[in-house]
């Protein structure tokens, strides 16, 4: 596709951003009365940044990472997860999910890799929330803004969390911040992957490059450009349309389940209460 | 928190203490308005007024009006009584803001007299509508106090943050173009993931910063204000004297209502 010619600037002031996220984490942990955090550490850049920010806000002794390899995971991912834990000084526990997923699909060999991938993401979610209950630790999610807008995540799987400090950062911005916070270079440089099957990469599966889609999403979502105005910025119309269709089609993943409206005040429709009220 | 700060300000022999928008309740009140709204004669406000004694206090609260409506309001308290209430005039209802769902909008500017001169209050978004500060000036205000709960948003490179820029520009424009002492007091802290950026500041009528507080951190400071600076600034830049309120009224009328039915179109200066 044609490279956009305009000066779309996704750069963030890293220290303003880190300051806001640190304030957010401290505030949420205080209001929710938690001292400890737990998060899945995949060996990728998003969870590495999430861990770095959590360590920055709470201290390394209050952060626990779970590495949760599946049978089909790349062994390098576990090595990278260990590198992240060593870099930021928090405890990493290994909680493999391969046998859980195998048992779940026992006798149903025909299950597609997407079904197996979803089950893997949900098995990880079970580990995180089980750990949360056992150790009174808040589950930190690490889906980024690009993934949330494209719906690139498993509903009630990796999208499930209590709070998410990086959900308003595009992948490009995650890279920028990760670099500032000292995430190891090999983790910044490797191709992003959900690591749900061998050879999977985000960009291969989505059929787009993060650098392009981030610039387009920034124009359309943050700057309110119309589809036509985005064409003027050098993006191809089929690319814009496919990205936009994907954003629209995945709204359900960003919302509470739709309820049938019956009563005068309905959860999620006309009952409005701040989650922070009274804390 | 208010009692603490009021006691501190009294100890410092301050004349006036200013709290941010909705200081008594927090910003995201939503459906709680009906449970936390206070009538102007509520005993809780009277108790604060007693605590304040001779200290002037400007604070933000959910006002429960006698007709059942709720307002995002500011009260001016002094000598044991509430002397003025300014209701928020422009309720933001776009993007992350949903104030019209929960509040009714005020319809009057209510400047009030104080020992340090006539003062007008603007509440957050009010300050970004240029006519509000102008109306206060026309009503005789020498000081404009903007109380705010402005969240950080639109973070960009090199310290850029679009949520802050508009307020800093408006705050300076009020001081410099209207010849008033301009006080801006903004909330700090975090509610539901949004962080209020603080950065409270006092400007003299030439828009020089007389006192400024840090961004994001809770802070308080005593600031001395030179009241005669208003006369000096208005002598140097006589915007008020040179102002043409009648012309503005006439043009607003024409733009809103069309040509005057009796005299037709306002004469143009074009040949």
> Over the alpha carbons, how many angstroms does the gyration radius of chain B reach?
19 Å
Helix share bin of chain A: 40-55%
* Average pLDDT of chain B: 94
**What is the number of helical segments of chain B per DSSP (H or I, 4+ residues)?**
9
Pick out its properties.
heterodimer, A: 279 residues, alpha/beta, 4-stranded parallel β-sheet, 12 helices, 4 strands, globular, B: 271 residues, 5-stranded mixed β-sheet, 4-stranded mixed β-sheet, 9 helices, 11 strands, 29% helix, 22% strand
Summarize the structure.
The complex is a heterodimer of chains A (279) and B (271). Chain A is an alpha/beta fold and 279 residues long.
Question: Describe it for me?
Answer:
The complex is a heterodimer of chains A (279) and B (271). With 279 residues, chain A is an alpha/beta fold. Chain A has helices at residues 14-31, 45-58, 75-88, 98-104, 113-135, 145-150, 171-180, 185-189, 202-206, 210-222, 227-232, 237-249, and strands at residues 36-40, 63-67, 91-94, 137-139. The longest helix of chain A is centred in the middle third of the chain and has 23 residues, at 113-135. Chain B has 271 residues and is of the alpha/beta class. Chain B has helices spanning 2-11, 33-36, 43-52, 99-102, 130-138, 162-178, 229-236, 239-242, 245-257; strands spanning 16-18, 56-64, 70-78, 81-87, 119-123, 143-148, 181-186, 188-191, 194-197, 201-203, 209-212. The N and C termini of chain B lie far apart (64 Å). Chains A and B meet through helix 1 of A and strand 8 of B.
Topology of this structure?
The complex is a heterodimer of chains A (279) and B (271).
Chain A lengths: L13 H18 L4 E5 L4 H14 L4 E5 L7 H14 L2 E4 L3 H7 L8 H23 L1 E3 L5 H6 L20 H10 L4 H5 L12 H5 L3 H13 L4 H6 L4 H13 L30
Parallel strand pairs in A: 1-2, 1-4, 2-3
Helix pairs in contact in A: 1-2, 2-3, 2-7, 4-5
Chain B lengths: L1 H10 L4 E3 L14 H4 L6 H10 L3 E9 L5 E9 L2 E7 L11 H4 L16 E5 L6 H9 L4 E6 L13 H17 L2 E6 L1 E4 L2 E4 L3 E3 L5 E4 L16 H8 L2 H4 L2 H13 L14
């Amino acid at each position: 596709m044609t490279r956009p010619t305009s000066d779309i600037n996704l750069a963030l002031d890293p220290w303003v951003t880190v300051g806001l996220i640190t304030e957010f984490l401290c505030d949420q942990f205080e209001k929710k009365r938690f001292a400890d955090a737990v998060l899945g550490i995949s060996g990728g850049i998003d969870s590495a940044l999430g861990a770095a920010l959590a360590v920055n806000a709470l201290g390394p002794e209050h952060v626990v990472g779970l590495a949760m390899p599946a049978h089909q995971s790349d062994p390098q991912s576990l090595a990278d997860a260990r590198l992240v834990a060593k870099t930021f000084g928090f405890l990493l526990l290994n909680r493999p999910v391969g046998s859980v997923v195998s048992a779940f699909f026992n006798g149903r060999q025909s299950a597609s890799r997407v079904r197996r991938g979803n089950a893997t993401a949900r098995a990880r979610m079970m580990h995180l929330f089980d750990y949360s209950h056992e150790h009174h630790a808040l589950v930190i999610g690490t889906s980024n803004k690009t993934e949330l807008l494209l719906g690139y995540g498993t509903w009630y799987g990796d999208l499930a969390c209590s709070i998410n400090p990086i959900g308003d950062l595009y992948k490009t911005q995650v890279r920028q911040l990760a670099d500032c916070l000292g995430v190891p270079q090999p983790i910044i440089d490797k191709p992003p992957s959900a690591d749900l099957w061998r050879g999977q990469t985000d960009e291969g599966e989505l059929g787009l490059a993060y650098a392009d889609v981030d610039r387009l999403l920034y124009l359309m979502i943050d700057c309110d450009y119309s589809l036509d105005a985005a064409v003027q910025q050098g993006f191809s119309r089929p690319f814009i349309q496919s990205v936009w269709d994907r954003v629209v089609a995945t709204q359900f993943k960003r919302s509470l389940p739709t309820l049938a409206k019956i009563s005068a005040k309905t959860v999620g429709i006309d009952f409005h209460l701040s989650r922070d009220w009274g804390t | 928190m208010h009692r603490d700060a009021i006691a501190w300000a009294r100890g410092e022999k301050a004349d006036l203490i200013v709290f941010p928008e909705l200081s008594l309740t927090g910003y995201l009140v939503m459906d709680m308005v009906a449970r936390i709204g206070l009538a102007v004669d509520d005993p809780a406000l009277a108790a604060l007024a007693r605590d304040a004694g001779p200290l002037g206090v400007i604070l933000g609260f959910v006002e429960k009006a006698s007709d059942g409506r709720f307002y995002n309001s500011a009260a001016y308290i002094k000598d044991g009584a509430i002397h003025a209430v300014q209701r928020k005039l422009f309720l933001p209802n776009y993007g992350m803001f949903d104030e019209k769902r929960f509040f009714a909008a005020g319809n009057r500017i209510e400047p009030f007299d104080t020992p340090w001169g006539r003062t007008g209050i603007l509440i957050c978004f009010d300050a970004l509508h240029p006519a509000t500060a102008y109306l206060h000036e026309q009503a005789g205000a020498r000081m404009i106090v903007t109380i705010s709960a402005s969240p950080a948003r639109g973070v960009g490179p090199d310290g850029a943050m679009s949520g802050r820029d508009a307020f800093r520009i408006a705050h300076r424009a009020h001081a410099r173009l209207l010849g008033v002492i301009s006080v801006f007091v903004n909330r700090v802290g975090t509610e539901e993931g949004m962080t209020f950026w603080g950065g409270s500041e006092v400007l003299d009528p030439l828009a020089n910063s007389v006192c400024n507080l840090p961004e994001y951190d809770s802070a308080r400071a005593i600031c001395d204000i030179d009241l005669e600076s208003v006369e000096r600034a208005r002598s140097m830049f006589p915007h008020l004297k040179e102002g043409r309120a009648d012309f503005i009224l006439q043009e607003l009328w024409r733009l809103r209502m069309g040509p005057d039915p009796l005299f037709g179109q306002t004469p143009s200066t074009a040949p």
